């Protein structure tokens, strides 16, 4: 694992490394990841195994291991690619790096997840697995963290975090909370109609306790107008739901 220009650790789950140069190899990688995505979407993570991926993607099992090293890395790469593709399609109506944007994002993601429960379950199973490699867990965590980090970075830059709050710790705590809620929802412990509100209320409540008065008011305003953000998660604002199985 290597560090990027910000000093953060770069993920290693994309697979393939320097070997993916030719169009045929790029196409083969796309076919492999698409196969895994379809398996997760239709059958769940428990159905994913290297023999079946090899058969469905029409590639040798040795090729899978050469490109991705392990089943867990391959699953993580497929999930990561899906969420990257989804993020590109999102349409927002709120300013970036604000409490408004965070609430809108959470509502959109919660609505999206209603149609990809198997993907969410796969994510949380990897995130909470005691055996998963640390860099894979970090990449799975980054799928969530990258959406709230700009907001926390802005609050830090504007000196709106309370003096006892560490910026990176707050980012990590928000990630852990969001995965805990997703885990409970994916396993039926949070009702579908409560998923978005549970995410938004929890994240904003944490922000209220972590911020100074000016920034605190932003989060309080979200909590006072929760229904407006829940409604923003409708299908007209989000990306196509077919991407998970395409």
Question: What distinguishing features does this structure have?
Answer:
246 residues; mainly alpha; Arc Repressor Mutant, subunit A; 2 domains; 11 helices; disordered N terminus
Individual helix count:
11
The 3D shape can be described as elongated
Give the fraction of residues assigned to helices. Answer: 55-70%
Main β-sheet description: none
Query: Can you count the beta strands?
Result: 0
Beta fraction? under 5%
Structurally, how many domains make up the residues?
2
| CA-atom Rg in angstroms | 19 Å
Mean pLDDT: 83
Distance between the termini: 29 Å
SSE series: HHHHHHHHHHH
**What structural class should be given to the helix and strand makeup?**
mainly alpha
> Are there runs of 5+ residues with pLDDT below 50, and where?
1-20, 234-246
Structure description:
With 246 residues, this protein is mostly helical. The chain folds into 2 domains: 65 residues, Homeodomain-like (Arc Repressor Mutant, subunit A, Orthogonal Bundle), CATH 1.10.10; 153 residues, no CATH class. 67% of the residues lie in helices and 0% in strands. Helix 1 crosses helix 6 and helix 4 packs across helix 6. It is elongated. The two termini are 29 Å apart.
């Amino acid at each position: 694992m290597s560090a990027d220009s910000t000093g953060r650790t770069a993920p290693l789950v994309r697979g393939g490394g320097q070997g993916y140069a030719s169009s045929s190899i790029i196409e083969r990688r796309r076919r492999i990841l698409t196969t895994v995505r379809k398996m997760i979407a239709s059958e769940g993570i428990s159905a994913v195994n290297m023999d079946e991926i090899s058969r469905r993607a029409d590639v040798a099992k040795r090729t899978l291991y050469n490109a991705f090293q392990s089943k867990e890395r391959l699953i993580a790469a497929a999930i990561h690619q899906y969420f990257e593709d989804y993020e590109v399609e999102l349409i927002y109506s709120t300013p970036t790096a604000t409490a408004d944007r965070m609430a809108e994002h959470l509502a959109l993601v919660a609505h999206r997840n209603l149609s990809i429960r198997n993907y969410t379950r796969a994510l949380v199973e990897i995130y909470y697995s005691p055996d998963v490699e640390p860099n894979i867990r970090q990449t799975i965590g980054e799928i969530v963290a990258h959406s709230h980090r700009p907001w926390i970075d802005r609050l830090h830059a504007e000196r709106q975090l309370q003096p006892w709050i560490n910026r990176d710790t707050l980012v990590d705590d928000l990630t852990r909370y969001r995965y805990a809620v997703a885990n409970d929802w994916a396993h039926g412990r949070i009702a579908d109609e409560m998923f978005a509100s549970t995410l938004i209320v929890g994240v904003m409540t944490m922000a209220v306790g972590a911020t100074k008065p000016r920034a605190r008011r932003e989060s309080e305003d979200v909590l006072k107008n929760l229904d407006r953000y829940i409604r923003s998660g409708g299908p007209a604002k989000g990306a196509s739901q077919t991407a998970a199985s395409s």
